[in-house]
Amino acid sequence: MDESENQNPMRPSINAIEFYAAPIETKEPRSTKIMRRFSGLPEALVALAIVAAVGWMVQPTYTFARNLRHETAMWDELRYMRSQIMIYRAEHDGLYPGFPDGDPTATPSAAIMIAQLSKYTDKYGNVSDQRTETHTFGPYITQMPVNPITQTPAVRILHRSQDVLADYELLGGWVYVPSQGVIAADAPGEDMLGVRYRDY
Length: 200
Hints:
Distance between the termini: 119 Å
Number of helices: 5
Strand content: 5-15%
Largest sheet: 3 strands, mixed
Number of domains: 1
Number of strands: 5
Structural class: mainly alpha
Order of helices and strands: HHHHEEEHEE
């Protein structure tokens, strides 16, 4: 009988047996772990230096753009308010906003000035929240704009336009002269061209 016929078919051949050797675990020296942990430190320091250098170069450009945006916005706010004050004067017999009851001899106030510009008025400057048969003028502004430099909409009343050009106390917001309709920025400092904000 052939020897291959005497082999047990259920018995695997020696070639089919796979041998597996488990890897031998070796403990890594502590010094090696420490060196690997800090091996990327120089690269990280170089990256931080590059980021810092880029930030240092970009900062002046960002500051210039921000200041230019604020200064342009203040120019626009003043131009618009001055035009609306002139329109109010034309529609109220030559009287600028700020005087109660259309009386130029009365004491003006910032609250009255803002109300007369932001609400409906009659020909005497009396205000109303709604348009009526007599209150047909305005509103000229929706609200008092924020000074882009000082970030406040506060209005301070002055009695002479010369005070606007003098070294008055700078409190932020706007200064307004009701007797002459003069409005200016109540902000310290000057723009990038050396023009004082109060001279805008």
